[in-house]
Structure formats: C-alpha cells, structure tokens
Amino acid sequence: MNLPLLEIWELIDSFKEQCSFRGWETCKKEDWVKTEDGVYHNFLWLQTIHPSTFEKIASNHKCGIYRGLYYEVVNIAYMAWLFKESPPEFILSNVKKNSELSEKTAIFDLSCAYHGGNICRKINETDSMVFKEFEKFLKDECSFELKSVDEIPTLTT
Asked: 115: which DSSP letter?
C-alpha cells in the first residue's frame, strides 16, 4: 500500500476491513471501531484544528453513531487523531502534559508520508488494542516507521 496515493479515509477503510476480520464492529459511513467488550474507538482525520475545538472534542468522549434510521449517542473510550499536515504544537503539548488526556488520546502525524517519507510521528500512550493494531497496520501494510514525537520533535519535509 502506498499512502501518498491514498487519502486518509481510504487508509482507515482498509484498516477497518482488517478489524472486521478480528470480530470488531465497524461502520462503512463512520470511522469508529467497537471491540468485543463494547468499547468504542474513534478515528478523527483532519488537516488542522483550533485549540478550543480540540479541547471540546477531546474532553467530551461522546459521539453520534448512526443506527438504521436514527443516531445513538455513545461514549467514546479512545480517540485517534490523524493529521495529513503536521499537527499544531498545542495539541502535542496538551496531550503530552495531561495524563488523563494521553490515556485516551492518540495522535498520528502522517504528514511525512504525504511528502514521500516513511517515518511518521505519534503519541500513543493509550492501552487501546485498536490503536496498537492500527500502528501494526501502518508498519506492516504501509511500511511506515512510527516514532514518538519526542524522538522527532520537528518534521522536515
């Protein structure tokens, strides 16, 4: 798989296909995974975000899940934020400084991949088995090396 040719939603769709083989519930129209223990893991992909918007979403832990003809509000245990461009520094520092936030929030900076590289930065201190599998997927299927944002503090493109 070659990420520069894929959009983030195609990457997530490929990953969700693998999740379904593990018996995890996914949705074609939305980017969440529900594990066998009923825990929801949400993927959010974006280029940039305002600090107050990030704080509201990251602290809310609620999401509307489409169920047939209606939406059901569910508790999202874990959120992964996927960035096509380098994430703003305030997001990285907020997640690193706040232990409660870092236990539930993963950040994947895929910007290097979109500029032809194969090393992507991450923050993932969660115990989410879905996000650990996502990292494995990025390594095995996309040939990306994931490094902590502390190992690669700034990206050069």
From this structure: T
Contact in structure between 95 and 70 (CB atoms under 8 Å): no
Q: What is the pLDDT of residues 112-151, one digit of tens each?
A: 888 888 889 999 999 999 999 999 999 999 889 999 988 7
Closest among 42, 151, 44, 139 to 91, alpha carbons compared: 44
What whole-number distance in Å separates Cα of residue 144 and Cα of residue 149? 15
Query: Which two tokens mark 9?
Result: 């939603």
Q: pLDDT digits over 50-84, tens only? A: 888 998 998 888 888 888 888 899 999 999 999 98
Q: What is the overall mean pLDDT for the chain? A: 88
CATH of 3-148, one of 3.40.50, 3.40.1340, 1.10.150, 1.10.10: 3.40.1340
Cα angle 129-108-27, degrees, rounded to a multiple of 5 = 55
- DSSP H/E element including 112: helix 111-114
**Cα 60 to the chain's mean position, in Å?**
16
Residue for token digits 């959009």?
7
